[in-house]
Amino acid sequence: MTKLRNVAVVGFAQAPIVAADEHHTGPEMLYPVVQAALESAGLERSDVDYQCAGSSDYVDGRAFSFSQVLEVMGAWPPVQDSHVEMDAIWAAHLVWVKMQAGETEVAIVCGFGKTSEGSPAHVLNLQLEPFYAAAIGLDAASTAALQASAYMARSGADDRALAEIASKNRAAGAKNPDGQLREAATPEQLMATPWAVKPLREGYLAPIGETATCMVLAVEGRAEKICDRPAWIQGVDHRIELQALGARDLARSESTTLAARNAFEMAGLASASAADVVELGSTNPAEELILREALGLPASARAQGGPAINPSGSAQCANPLMNTGLLRLAEGFRQLSGRAGERGVPGAKRAVVHASAGHGLQQNIVWVLGTERRWS
Amino acid sequence: MSEPPKERVKYIDTNLNLPYHYYAGDYKALYLRALRDKKILGSRCSKTGKVFVPPVIASPESLAPCDELVELPHRGIVTTFCVVNVPVIGREIEIPYVVASVALDGADVSLYSLIQECAAADVRMGTRVEAVWKPDGERQGDHTDIRYFRPTGEPDAPFESFIHRL
Amino acid sequence: MKRPVAVVGVGQTHHTSKRVDVNVAEMVREAVDRALLDAGLEHDDIDAIVLGKAPDPLEGIMQPEQYLAGALGAHLKPIIRVHTAGSVGCTTALTAATHVASGLYGRILTIAFEKQSEGNAMWALSPNYAFTQPMVAGAGGFFAPYCRAYIARSGAPGHIGAVVAANARENAGRNEYAHLRDPMTVEEALNSMMLWEPIRFLETCPSSDGAIALVMANEDNARRGPRKPAWLKAGATFTEPMYVPGRDQVSPLAGRTCAKWVYDKAGIRDPWNEIQVAEIYVPFSWYEPMWLENLGFAPLNEGWKVVDRGDQKMGRHLPINPSGGVLNTNPIGASGMLRFGEAALQVMGRAGEHQVGGVKTALGHAYGGGAQYFSIGILAAEL
User: Fold this and answer.
1) Residues of A with Cβ-Cβ distance to C26 under 8 angstroms
2) Where along chain A do its domains lie?
3) Model-level ipTM above the cut of 0.90
4) The CATH homologous superfamily of the domain defined by A7-116+208-226
5) Are C294 and C201 in a shared domain?
6) Nearest-CA distance from A61 to chain B in Å?
7) How far apart, in Å, are the Cα atoms of A231 and each of A328, B131, C190, C221?
8) Mutual orientation of helices A26-40 and A65-73 as an angle, nearest 10°?
9) Which residue of A38, A165, A305, C97 is most buried, as measured by CB atoms within 10 A?
């Protein structure tokens, strides 16, 4: 493996994840978050030499939505800047690539998405191929259910297996002060909830919420001065699959397997099981089981030993669109840098972080973070 | 959007009708409520003293909070403008009409507004204008409460006073 | 660039007001196939894909790169989607370049497109929010006041806009891919309807359907390719907020900062004499003299004199937009990458009938938002 530049996550802040913040606009939610992230890193805005946001015009219901947040990200005098129409975790990836290219040393990544102003179910339908898939009215819950069916049919996983995974995440989410869904629930309670779209129950689906996020990344030489315990990026890769639900094996996540293999190889990590923490971007328990399989992790919530999986409660307990992925990377940072509070995994040295985009886990990114630099 | 192809199998029609309700945010709601009361509020930057209208919570220039609300006069100058000859979807307005950047007295950023009650040819860069409001009882607390601005007939503002603050 | 980056393949569609013969995926694939063919490569040779386009409401598909994964040959590859308003095409190409410069990817396919005929651009670009300042007059109505301010500041005579438009059209006549190619005189432009005074109908860009794809590669791959590469000497994007008191909307600081940055990185001290051709983003004709100043090709308030002298025409000192530019071809999201790609073709010596003689260094430029987003690449014939 070629020697890469050591880059670390050195700061993070977020707004509370809520169903609807009717008191603030998207930029107003982000303003204090950027200030807090910079303050947590002990930085002035002028110390930052690049910024990149992740958001969606359709989520916000307006063209050029990202241009609103320039007003609060600190873009005067003019700054080097970009924006991806993706979850902000891909903005973080672009920053990492830019750092490898020697184009930035300290950067901020911002995510925002004012989901409560629109109708996410209708909005996410528009991601689908327009002639056959979008036109029949599929929404994210329906495509997730198609995927869950495929997985359950192949693996033999039953409703209880899903409920146990969901319950485990709910218990973890209850301890996460930054979560949205913070009530623990037993498998039995969840199995008593009505079908959302069979075989997925209402109790299994993530609430769509809204927040604003800001992460600070820095290269070696700057990172350790900014942060007492940087979370070093040891490996990362992302991959997409065909969208058409009939054109890929919905019961597996081939892109996750491939991205993980590449990220682990880069990091020198034998497998996900060798990490101390695994944080997944799954928004329902069937997705989590598919991802566990793709990453070589146990297929049951009852498995003992191995890494702590989803200490934050995962995206199943909060799915603020366009921020959901970046929050996973933030959880990895918090766990490795001693900022995870009561849910902190003692002595965690390595974290595997995953996030997803599109219907039925179409696009996946896998990171390996560590308390040590990968390259010396 | 153009006319569809002639042959029916070559396209599908979709009317994307997505509902949104945009939150003004509590701060901008103060501004909208004030419009209903025939007042124009701006916010002052705690660091530079510059005044933004509509009010913003923070200055994009200094990033400092703008937590002091100030009431602005209903008068200002046209810094620049264009004369529109194309009908705009969703607006019933006689063409040609003037869309101008209006710098209210005491504000450091301009508002976009219509200029009416005069011929388009009589609008100049520097023309002094005043707000024309919807009558009492009809104002709802939105941007249409100021129907437009009209010339006051006062002497024009000198070019140098506004050309670098459009 | 930390590591050399080159454009090794260029492919574009013929641009037109509506491509009813193809859907979005097929139109994009057309450009992709042409770029790969041009580079002598196949999908398997591509390590990652960078896609750019303007707002999704223009076509009504959210994050269309997901739906387009098949058409792009992206299955099991990394793909990212850039969106930085009108500057996006150029910024997307520069993002692809960053991927190559990182050393992580050897060959990148980058694509930008717009199929404006499938949606309503006026609606997509001018939503009305009750509590913000309504943009009552479309993009032309938004930019026309700044053109007026430019004219007032610089004392430019009224015919300059028409001269720009007629020259751009003459250039487009030599570009087989351009959307508007019919001959047009200065008088015709002057006599065309005043849409958003001071902007006339024939001084305005069209709405186009079209796509462009580029293959960018590292030094090893570039030297092994079938064609002479175009080397990227420098590239940057700079952005500024809209509501900064005293912001110069006529010659925005972000544009001036971006130009200075890329010139410094490319070792250019005198752009007027060291650059032989520029493809710059001119959706309304007055923006040509405005950007000539903003880019440092002319002193403040003197950009119009370049146009008045004709120094921007083919065969003269610094040909501007030999392709015909945005004024004659505007698939919004693709327009910036067309500037970058045309600049690459010029340094490769493969621009066909609109090739400028003796090009060593070319500039590609785009801007977007309320003249807030700037993106510039400098391409060179030699590394």
Assistant:
1) none
2) 7-116+208-226
3) yes
4) Thiolase/Chalcone synthase (3.40.47.10)
5) yes
6) 7
7) 13, 56, 62, 34
8) 40
9) A165
